[in-house]
From TrEMBL:
<dbReference type="InterPro" id="IPR041667">
    <property type="entry name" value="Cupin_8"/>
</dbReference>
<feature type="domain" description="JmjC">
    <location>
        <begin position="112"/>
        <end position="280"/>
    </location>
</feature>
<dbReference type="InterPro" id="IPR003347">
    <property type="entry name" value="JmjC_dom"/>
</dbReference>
<dbReference type="Pfam" id="PF13621">
    <property type="entry name" value="Cupin_8"/>
</dbReference>
<protein>
    <submittedName>
        <fullName>Cupin-like domain-containing protein</fullName>
    </submittedName>
</protein>
<dbReference type="InterPro" id="IPR014710">
    <property type="entry name" value="RmlC-like_jellyroll"/>
</dbReference>
Length: 343
């Protein structure tokens, strides 16, 4: 088993490695695992991985040849930030956004590659099927009949602050080298999250600089590190990140490509829990404590416990939204909520 890279935190545990011989074994692991695991060489047969092993230029050529004539969004950061995509002193983003054809963007990569003082360049969460022809088909996800969201992440050496995602995530290193530092969901208090609404990419992030932790400002971060796990991915390797696990992601090479897959084992009509949290802040957070206690009991009764005592006394067929939801009833509930929010 590979050892954790000692350059950040020397005592961290490593993400366990698993041997997977076929999609059926991976499927079984994904269905049962609620903690991260690493699979070496899972996607080593991908043409994109093979191109990247030849050279950075070969990987870029592979993608440019298959890129659609559409605009690609790119984030650009100054050299002095050392690849950290974060906030500035005013809590605005410390990078600027641009757009261009992939061939033009990659020309900039070629120009600055291996040069000292080069800017940070990062194409994040690019939808593969919307931006490329053939890449998804030639580099298929080993996920059986799941229908994940397929994204590609391309950049120079970068540091992406710890964040989490609601879906499960399989992240595959296609070129370069990636280091993931992972934390269980319950460590959010020890990661000192930033704003919920002003975020670099839609999810709240840890305010801790992992390269230089300020333990006076963030003392509980030391507790988070006791639960952390590290995975270092080479080309062809993949790491499974379960739903809501926090992950700090670094591109360690001068040019890096990651392909990731998000999926949810819940119906497609289900709502977004983050939206519910945001609305709870609007509706509940500033209530008097005695009122919040009442609503906490109601949430436990109808949402978190959701036991038979909440519905058995109501005739079947007359329980409204307390009935199990389907696509039709979820659509009606969503429309009702929108009317209420806009009233």
């Amino acid at each position: 088993m590979a050892e954790a890279d000692p350059s950040i935190f020397p005592a961290l545990s490593v993400v366990p490695e698993r041997i997977v011989r076929d999609e059926a074994e991976l499927d079984a692991l994904l269905k049962s695992a609620r903690e991260p695991f690493l699979v070496r060489g899972l996607v080593a047969s991908w043409p994109l991985v093979k191109a990247g092993l030849k050279s950075n230029s070969a990987a870029r050529t592979y993608l440019v040849d298959r890129a659609r004539p559409v605009q690609f969004a790119i984030s650009l950061g100054p050299p002095e930030h050392n690849g950290r995509m974060f906030y500035d002193e005013e809590m605005a983003m410390n990078f600027r956004m641009g757009k261009g054809k992939l061939s033009e963007i990659f020309a900039g990569f070629e120009k600055h590659e291996a040069q000292p003082g080069a800017p940070t360049a990062y194409l994040g969460s690019i939808d593969i099927r919307q931006h490329f022809d053939g890449v998804a088909e030639e580099n298929p996800p080993p996920l059986g009949d799941r229908q994940p969201r397929e994204s590609i992440w391309i950049g120079t050496a970068t540091r992406i602050a710890a964040h989490n995602d609601f879906p499960d995530n399989l992240a595959c290193c296609a070129a370069g080298k990636r280091r993931f530092t992972l934390f269980p969901p319950d460590q959010f208090k020890n990661l000192y999250l930033g704003p919920l609404d002003n975020t670099p990419a839609g999810r709240p992030i840890s305010m801790v600089d992992f390269d230089a932790p300020d333990y006076e400002r963030f003392p509980r971060f030391a507790d988070a590190l006791e639960h952390a796990q590290v995975a270092v991915l080479e080309p062809g390797d993949a790491v499974f990140i379960p739903s809501m696990w926090w992950h700090h992601v670094e591109g360690l090479a001068e040019f890096n490509i990651l392909v990731n897959y998000w999926w949810r084992d819940v119906p497609s009509f289900a709502g977004d829990p983050q939206t519910a949290l945001n609305h709870a802040i609007l509706a509940l957070r500033d209530l008097p404590d005695k009122d919040k206690a009442i609503w906490r009991d109601l949430f436990d009764h109808y949402v978190f416990e959701n036991g038979p005592d909440s519905i058995d006394h109501i005739p079947a067929g007359s329980r409204g939204i307390l009935e199990p939801l389907d696509s039709a009833s979820a659509s009606r509930l969503r429309a009702f909520l929108l009317r209420m929010l806009n009233s």
